[in-house]
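so im writing up the methods section and need the Protein SCO1/2 record in one place, dumping it here so i stop losing it
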Amino acid sequence: MTRGLMTALGLGVAVAALAGLYLSGVLSPGREDRFARCRTDQSAIGGGQIGGPFSLVSETGEAVTDADIIIGPTLIYFGYTFCPDVCPLDNTRNAQAIYLLDERGYDVTPVFISIDPARDTPELLARFTEYMHPRMIGLTGTPEQVAAASRAYRTFFKVQDPDEEYYLIDHSTLSYLVVPGLGFVEYFKRDMTPEEMAERIACFVDSL
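--- predicted struct ---
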């Protein structure tokens, strides 16, 4: 994925988040943003335009919804297990941040939603997530279900050369912090370190 495309996608998410500012309840007229001290980029203020209901299939083969998965602070990433570089690096970073939070007593669930339902079976997702973190949850579904979840979180993905056996997928690379009752509250870019991410997430959780 080109740097220009990643930048454009990040800006698009920021604009969508800001547009939904007052709808989310995180900030409203006469009310301060409860997470203001946790943010380094005010354009990332959470909004009702990002996130929402989804129906997918878990790595155990069960049909699940967002209500089944988001039962506490949750870190969501959209990617695919055949990704040769970005996804393994991003999910390793996310897992390391969760391990740091574990050590501090914070219970945050990492979630990996596959954008490649044709190849990412529940069994394959289970192996991938177990390698990353024992609490990481892998989700897949029908192409329609995956596309709906992607639209809800304003993510982008496009298969390159779909007729090729070992096709690659262009996709956005943000990680989303979601909490029950509020929904999406923050996104994290891929240049953030595990330590920085853990510190930021802890701040958000402390502010709930």
